[in-house]
């Protein structure tokens, strides 16, 4: 193979004297031959000494002289040195051709085989033997080899040393493994171009180890998230020579996610390699394919509010770290310019200020700030000008329906715009009570009652027909509104959202600041076009709506165009549903809570259920992280602060899920130093461990299977909204008695029927609950691993039971019970039925008289916190029906005949109807539609006493309200059912 051409510097005459050539031509030729022309290497590697002869026809003859090798043969070697400790892409390796015992050496040339897929040739440098003035030449050849040579400019050299240096750079993407360098041809000559005998040096192998080739942060880029919300980050990694097994079976690869405060972007901030080790979290390998890895991680939900920079960090063995950064196209290795650490802005979690689902078919907010649930100043929705036409299927659950949007006049008599209209919109207590006329006046809507100032125009739009909502946004800004709206084809299409603030009650706010309502102002981006299907609308509210003592909103119909493009029809409908206003707390001060201790005084007991009930469905900042572990946990301060203690699970809403922490941490005590309210006698007694019974009753001696019923009452007990009590039995083994039932008196019956009652049991659960537990749906969020069992029936009753028999605070084994109205309500007055009814069964013959004790008790009227009558004012009495013997302990006869509420309700299409029979008799159960027409007969037969249940499948019927009636020889009872398809 021809790799180079070499002209020697000695010219010998052939046939004519060289002196016959013109002197100038000879001189010029020699210069060009030595310094300009490339070396000549003949096919077999012999270097030619060029003989130039003058012929008859001007030209030159090239001849090859005989090879002379009088001197000893030199020995050659090939070695390499690479920059850096790791042979990774970008590293330069230098190969050196050296000679020992060289005699009269002036030229050296070689042909080198190498892997051009792994190495790029950089340059050739002369070695020490010929010195820096030597002439070097190198050229990559088409077959992937390299031709290189060096010539001395100062005559022949003798001795040992390096002849030339060849520099190669490891290519980006080079495969890991062994890369060989081999000399397949080598030539040494003296000054007369006489070849010297030389053997090719041994090959050289360079091992490229497995390495990380590339990395990047693929998604997301810069992002803003609320603290506590989940945000997934994804990374890619390319590697050579690494398999999935290498990673999974060893700890060779470190993959981490780094977070640092955003001031790291400043010029004097540390580079990624200087980030604090505490800021790095593990990444999870999710995918591997042919040297390409995918990793991901969730941004820490408890990362504080602020701005943060994020990166990925990868390291294989002890090799240099690779920092995965974000770029516009899949990310890359951090360089601070094209590939950078994206910024993650963590904001305060949003709070639900008020939300209307309308599923309860009322106009008050279902959930929101405690101030928006206050009966004296609730967050309410209403309809004005158009006609309320009943409740219908909504975006989810139920929604208000309306028609008569076509009438332009607003005279209070022709179009239900006055008192009549407001009555239709919720004048009765069931539909929201004061949510009608009087409330709309307080909200600045007096013009809707027949003219007034609001019968004019605002920004050219008539405020004649509209939906409205009124709420407080005090203490919050960055407000956002979401709602759903739909209508029939002949219903109104175009609406515009307006707002007005009113701080006349003296609250701080961003309203007019003058203590009077501001003008009605269009909300930017608040023009709405409604369709026939439910559509979501997300609209940020202006800053002026923030921190307002009262914020009023109107969804105003702005023209007469229907959804189908014609004029609005008389029967054209419009519906609104799932209105939700959220915001961010202005104050970031933190408070400390103990999960389960809703009163904030440091001890968990049944009394905590009452506070949870009082604040039912109130909202505030979520706790990050959300945990019910018994430990002090910080949370952004709620408004008002005492309400925040009732959010025991930290999800930002007080509901049945918060019962679990009470059961889990029951009896735990901590010195919190937090007392949001003055401790009453009941709380102080519990806190100090005073376990003297409030009341005691010596039970009669019972025979096996006999039962006794007792009633708990108290003096000067006028009304209550919740009751909690701890009971125990002493003087008898726990295995000798059974708690058949413990329930509130008739003061809570209406709450139970309306699905507004919380029932809590800790300790020995009543058999009446256990027998019917199959009818209760487990909450999907329930955690029963600690012996606490949380249930929530579809009808809205909430139960918490704990089967633990251990004593609490030194009190003999017994049970704790609590009953309370969910949310703000009207206190109820107990009757002769007492505060609580307890029914016990003897499981063996009692040879002694056990004692039933009331160890502690509390009640509330809803406005004055927990209260307790003085010790001695509580008492037990035996129920007038006395003691009886049940011949079959497996049968528990109901005490009265009763039709219970169906469940679920609303339902689709099957519901269960439970009922009790106190004595045998004929039973007829019939279903009627809203017009009184009989649509089904579920039962018409004689039944034995006991608890019964029948199922009704309404799949063939349309959605709507249905009535179910039970008739016996002594009872006629009717209940309402709602079928929603």
UniProtKB/TrEMBL annotation:
Key words of the record: Membrane, Transmembrane, Transmembrane helix
Low complexity compositional bias, start-end: 437-446
Membrane is among the record's keywords: yes
Domain Secretion system C-terminal sorting, residue spans: 903-976
Compositional bias (Gly residues): 415-436
Domain of life: Bacteria
Biased composition (Polar residues): 398-409
TM helices/strands, residue ranges: 21-42
BP GO annotations: polysaccharide catabolic process
InterPro entries assigned: CBM2/CBM3_carb-bd_dom_sf, Dockerin_dom_sf, EF_Hand_1_Ca_BS, Secre_tail
Coiled coil: none
Disordered, as annotated region: 393-461, 501-528, 771-790
Gene Ontology molecular function, alphabetical: carbohydrate binding
Annotated protein name in UniProt: T9SS type A sorting domain-containing protein
Organism classification: Bacteria, Pseudomonadati, Balneolota, Balneolia, Balneolales
């Amino acid at each position: 193979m021809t790799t180079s051409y070499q002209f020697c510097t000695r010219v010998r005459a052939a046939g004519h004297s060289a002196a016959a050539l013109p002197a100038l031509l000879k001189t010029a030729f020699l210069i060009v031959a030595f310094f300009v022309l490339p070396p000549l290497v003949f096919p077999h590697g012999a270097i030619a000494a060029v003989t130039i002869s003058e012929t008859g026809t001007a030209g030159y003859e090239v001849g090859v002289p005989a090879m002379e090798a009088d001197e000893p043969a030199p020995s050659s070697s090939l070695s390499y040195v690479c920059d850096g400790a790791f042979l990774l892409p970008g590293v330069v390796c230098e190969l050196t051709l050296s000679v020992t015992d060289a005699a009269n050496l002036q030229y050296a040339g070689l042909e080198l085989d190498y892997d051009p897929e792994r190495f790029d040739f950089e340059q050739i440098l002369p070695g020490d033997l010929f010195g820096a003035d030597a002439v070097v030449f190198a050229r990559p050849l088409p077959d992937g080899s390299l031709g290189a040579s060096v010539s001395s400019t100062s005559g022949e050299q003798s001795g040992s040393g390096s002849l030339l240096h060849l520099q190669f750079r490891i290519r980006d993407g080079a495969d890991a493994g062994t890369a060989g360098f081999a000399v397949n041809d080598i030539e040494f000559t003296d000054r007369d171009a006489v070849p010297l005998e030389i053997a090719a040096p041994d090959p050289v192998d360079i091992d490229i180890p497995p390495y990380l080739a590339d990395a990047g942060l693929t998604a997301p880029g810069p992002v803003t998230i609320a603290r506590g919300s989940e945000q997934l980050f994804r990374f890619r990694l390319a590697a050579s020579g690494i398999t999935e097994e290498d990673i999974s079976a060893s700890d060779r690869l470190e993959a981490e996610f780094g977070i640092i405060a955003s001031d790291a972007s400043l010029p004097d901030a540390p580079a990624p390699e200087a980030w604090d080790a505490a800021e790095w979290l593990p990444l999870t390998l999710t995918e591997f394919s042919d040297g390409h890895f995918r990793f991901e991680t969730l941004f820490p939900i408890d990362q504080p509010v602020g701005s943060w920079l994020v990166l990925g960090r990868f390291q294989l063995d002890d090799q240099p770290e690779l920092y995965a950064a974000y770029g516009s196209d899949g990310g890359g290795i951090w360089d601070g310019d094209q590939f950078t650490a994206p910024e993650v802005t963590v904001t305060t979690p949003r709070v639900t200020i008020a939300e209307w689902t309308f599923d309860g078919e009322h106009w008050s907010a279902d959930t929101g700030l405690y101030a928006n649930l206050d009966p004296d100043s609730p967050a309410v929705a209403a309809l004005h000008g158009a006609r309320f036409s009943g409740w219908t299927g909504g975006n989810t659950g139920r929604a208000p329906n309306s028609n008569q949007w076509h009438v332009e006049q607003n005279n209070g008599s022709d179009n239900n715009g006055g008192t009549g209209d407001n009555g239709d919109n919720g004048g009765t207590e069931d539909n929201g009570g004061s949510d009608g006329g009087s409330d709309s006046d307080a909200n600045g809507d007096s013009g809707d009652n027949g003219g007034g100032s609001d019968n004019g125009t605002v920004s050219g739009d008539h405020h004649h027909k509209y939906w409205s909502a009124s709420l407080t946004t005090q203490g919050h800004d960055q407000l956002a509104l979401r709602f759903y709206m739909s209508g029939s084809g002949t219903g109104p299409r175009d609406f515009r959202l307006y707002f007005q603030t009113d701080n006349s009650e003296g609250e701080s706010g961003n309203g007019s600041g003058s203590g009077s309502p501001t003008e009605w102002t269009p909300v930017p981006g608040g023009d709405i076009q409604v369709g026939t299907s439910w559509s979501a609308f997300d609209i940020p509210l202006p800053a002026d709506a923030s921190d307002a003592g009262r914020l009023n909103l109107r969804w105003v119909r702005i023209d007469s165009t229907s959804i189908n493009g014609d004029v609005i029809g008389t029967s054209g409908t419009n519906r609104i549903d799932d209105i939700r206003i959220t915001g961010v707390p202005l104050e970031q001060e933190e408070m400390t809570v103990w999960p389960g201790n809703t009163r904030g005084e440091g001890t968990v007991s049944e009394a905590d259920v009452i506070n949870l009930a009082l604040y039912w469905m109130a909202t505030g900042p979520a706790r990050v992280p959300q945990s019910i572990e018994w430990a002090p946990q910080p949370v952004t301060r709620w408004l008002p602060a005492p309400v925040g203690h009732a959010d025991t699970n930290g999800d930002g809403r007080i509901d049945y899920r918060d019962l679990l922490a009470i059961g889990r941490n029951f009896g735990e005590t901590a010195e919190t130093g937090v007392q949001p309210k003055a401790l009453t006698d009941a709380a102080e007694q519990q806190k100090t461990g005073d376990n003297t019974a409030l009341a005691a009753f010596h039970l009669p001696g019972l025979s096996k299977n006999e039962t006794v019923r007792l009633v708990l009452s108290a003096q000067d007990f006028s009304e209550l909204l919740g009751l909690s009590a701890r009971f125990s039995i002493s003087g008898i083994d726990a295995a000798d008695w059974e708690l058949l039932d413990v329930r509130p008196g008739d003061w809570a019956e209406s709450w139970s029927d309306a699905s507004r009652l919380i029932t809590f049991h800790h300790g020995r659960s009543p058999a009446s609950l256990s027998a019917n537990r199959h009818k209760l749906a487990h909450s999907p969020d329930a955690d029963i691993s600690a012996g606490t069992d949380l249930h929530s029936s579809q009808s809205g009753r909430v139960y918490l039971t704990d089967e633990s028999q251990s004593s609490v605070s030194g009190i003999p084994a017994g049970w704790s019970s609590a009953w309370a109205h969910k949310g703000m309500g009207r206190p109820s007055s107990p009757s002769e039925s007492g505060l609580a009814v307890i029914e016990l069964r003897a499981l063996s013959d009692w040879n002694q008289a056990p004692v039933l004790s009331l160890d502690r008790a509390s009640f509330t009227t809803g406005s004055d916190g927990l209260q307790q009558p003085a010790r001695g004012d509580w008492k037990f009495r035996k129920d007038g029906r006395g003691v009886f013997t049940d011949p079959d302990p497996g049968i528990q006869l109901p005490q009265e005949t009763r039709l219970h509420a169906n469940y679920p309700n609303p339902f689709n299409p099957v519901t269960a109807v439970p009922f009790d029979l106190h004595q045998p008799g004929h039973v007829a159960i019939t279903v009627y539609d809203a017009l009184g027409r009989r649509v089904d007969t579920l039962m018409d037969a004689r039944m034995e006493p006991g608890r019964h249940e029948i199922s009704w499948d309404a799949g063939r019927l349309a959605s709507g309200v249905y009535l179910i009636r039970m008739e016996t020889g002594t009872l006629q009872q009717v209940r309402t059912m709602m079928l929603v398809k």
